[in-house]
Design a protein that fits this description.
Helix content: 40-55%
Strand order of the largest sheet: 1-8-3-6-9
Shape: elongated
Distance between the termini: 43 Å
Structural class: alpha+beta
Strand content: 15-25%
Length: 264
């Protein structure tokens, strides 16, 4: 069971005088900073960058403050007996950088909405959202390679995934990050395990499979929507990644039985 006491998103304070000082908190507290901040860790104040998260257990000292002219954070205070919280391997009282802060921010926003509105599935929705948020914390807390450039790369990758049919080229992607094409190719593959252009191609083929299997567009129309100006080039890349030609893949969708019509 989870009982949320307070939950806030994008709470802003004017620094540098903002301080939270609780000698021994009585509840679980999860804080996600959007600006740099100072935290009391192992007997001293240490500065941590924006997009840091810190989890406090009940009874643990809570002390953090602004390190600049402005402090912005998301936070949730709650009680729970859920093992995914009470037995979490996430280190308590020690901030760490978030792998995907935009994703975590969206989860916070949804948690705040669920907390503020008494809908029928409120409790189960909050549990699912907090469980997902803790999964994201686990993905982040043991990494030591998250840098400001990582967040820029992540934004580029999301843009590619959302719009794979765009005119993506290595120079354009490098310009997006204000770095050289060679450096982009090096850090992109190191970060995501795939080259930037292979990522573009894989996302284009993913989108093409949806159009071919479930839509009624011609192969040429699908190719154009997925960023190809040459149908033969599209067909070669499609077969290389799927083992089928676009038309063969499309026939698979056509052979599936139609869904029954809803009774009128």
């Amino acid at each position: 069971m989870i009982h949320v006491l307070y939950a806030h998103c994008d709470m802003a304070h004017d620094g540098p005088h903002f301080v939270t000082d609780v000698p021994a908190g009585t509840h679980w507290l999860l804080v996600f900073t959007k600006t740099p901040a100072l935290f009391w860790v192992e007997g001293e104040l240490r500065e941590y960058p924006a997009y840091s998260a810190v989890l406090y257990r009940p009874g643990q000292k809570v002390y953090y403050r602004a390190s600049g002219d402005r402090f912005v954070n998301n936070w949730i205070r709650f009680t729970t007996d859920e093992p995914f919280v009470t037995e979490t391997p996430v280190p308590c009282g020690v901030p760490f950088s978030l792998d995907d802060p935009d994703y975590c921010h969206k989860l916070f926003e949804l948690l705040v909405i669920e907390h503020n509105f008494n809908k029928n599935c409120k409790d189960s929705s909050i549990r699912c959202l907090l469980r997902t948020l803790f999964n994201k914390l686990l993905e982040s807390c043991f990494r030591n390679d998250i840098t400001p450039q990582h967040y820029n790369l992540l934004k580029l990758r999301v843009a590619i995934q959302n719009n794979p049919g765009d005119h993506w080229t290595i120079p354009r992607m490098a310009d997006y990050l204000k770095i050289s094409p060679g450096y982009l190719q090096s850090i992109y593959k190191k970060t995501f395990g795939v080259s930037c252009m292979d990522d573009v191609i894989q996302n284009r083929i993913r989108l093409a499979k949806e159009y071919l299997y479930y839509g009624s567009l011609s192969v040429a129309e699908v190719a154009f929507r997925c960023g190809y100006r040459n149908v033969e080039h599209f067909s070669r890349q499609f077969k290389r990644l799927t083992g089928l030609t676009p038309r063969e893949y499309q026939k698979r969708g056509e052979s599936q039985p139609a869904l029954p019509e809803s009774p009128s």
